[in-house]
Inverse folding.
């Protein structure tokens, strides 16, 4: 299988690239290195990926790259991910997250791509939802421009399906942590706390520490991408997370005395129901087990 990963030099994208190489795919990466790092791809470059330093706002360049590499499947992770910047400069945020996604979908369609797996956010898209954990059936009411642009990009995925029949499935991640996470990023609380633990310093808790998130390991995010990419009937939007809300205090109380400060970055609570995804994955794994049973 030929796979193309946008944002492949980033935290989550580079973990996905490694997993695709492990299963024997030919992999191309598109990234402009805004927040991504070439060192995240050091191993992957040695293993022969095709590397394009390109901006997804440049639709013409994307069309050339997709036409040359002819991927079967595209994982679209490149994004403007800074929530504060999205509020300060919503036009830039939209240019990358909406305009860039449209360019990816167009390039994919013209190159005959079978499916695009799009990336969205559970934490920023639902806004002040009344139901927590929040199922996909709740209408998103994002507070930050970042959530709004991600929601709009999801709608374009639905649109290419209706107009052209191209499959574009969206995964809404919880708060992702794991290797290669940038501790200076927006959602890097576990990376920041781990760095402080290694330095022997106390973490700072913003707000009262009772704000909750659905902390999800990057390996599980990668597994969800691979499962949804393979499932013949996957469609629409899926939450990806543990389904469990954890407070910041939960993360630190066993290691450090609490420190206080205040800052509001996004909503105070987030937990997503993942029942829609689990249903898909369970069906997929049961089919796999059935095939294994037949083979044995
Ligand atoms: P990241 O910053 O490490 O990865 C984003 C990548 O996109 C970077 O490599 C960056 O250089 C690249 N990029 C940015 N603008 C670009 C442009 N114009 N053209 C080409 N490449 C561009 O962040 P991440 O945490 O790995 O995020 C990956 C995806 O997951 C994003 O779509 C993000 O919105 C989504 N997401 C992440 C989290 C999380 O907790 N980290 C939660 C929800 C959703």
């Amino acid at each position: 299988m030929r796979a193309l990963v946008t944002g492949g030099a980033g935290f989550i994208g580079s973990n996905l690239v490694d997993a695709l190489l492990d299963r024997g795919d030919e992999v191309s990466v598109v990234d402009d290195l805004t927040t991504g790092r070439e060192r995240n791809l050091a191993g992957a470059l040695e293993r022969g990926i095709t590397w394009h330093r390109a901006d997804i706002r440049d639709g013409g360049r994307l069309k050339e790259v997709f036409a040359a590499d002819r991927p079967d499947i595209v994982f679209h992770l490149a994004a403007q991910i800074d929530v504060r910047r999205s509020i300060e400069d919503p036009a830039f945020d939209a240019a990358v997250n909406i305009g860039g996604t449209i360019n990816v979908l167009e390039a994919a369609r013209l190159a005959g791509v079978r499916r695009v797996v799009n990336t969205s956010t559970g934490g920023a898209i639902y806004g002040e939802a009344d139901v927590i954990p929040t199922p996909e059936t709740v209408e998103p009411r994002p507070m930050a421009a970042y959530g709004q642009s991600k929601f709009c990009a999801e709608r374009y995925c639905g649109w290419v399906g209706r107009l052209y029949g191209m499959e574009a499935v969206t995964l809404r991640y919880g708060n992702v942590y794991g290797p290669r996470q940038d501790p200076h990023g927006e959602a890097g609380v576990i990376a920041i706390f781990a760095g402080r633990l290694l330095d022997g310093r106390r973490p700072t808790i913003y707000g009262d520490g009772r704000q909750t998130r659905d902390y999800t390991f990057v390996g599980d995010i990668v597994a969800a991408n691979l499962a949804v990419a393979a499932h013949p009937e996957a469609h629409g939007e899926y939450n990806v997370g543990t389904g469990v809300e954890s407070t910041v205090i939960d993360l630190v109380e066993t290691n450090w005395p609490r420190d206080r400060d205040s800052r509001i970055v996004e909503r105070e609570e987030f937990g997503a129901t993942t029942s829609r995804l689990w249903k898909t994955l369970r069906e997929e794994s049961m089919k796999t087990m059935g095939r294994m049973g037949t083979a044995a």
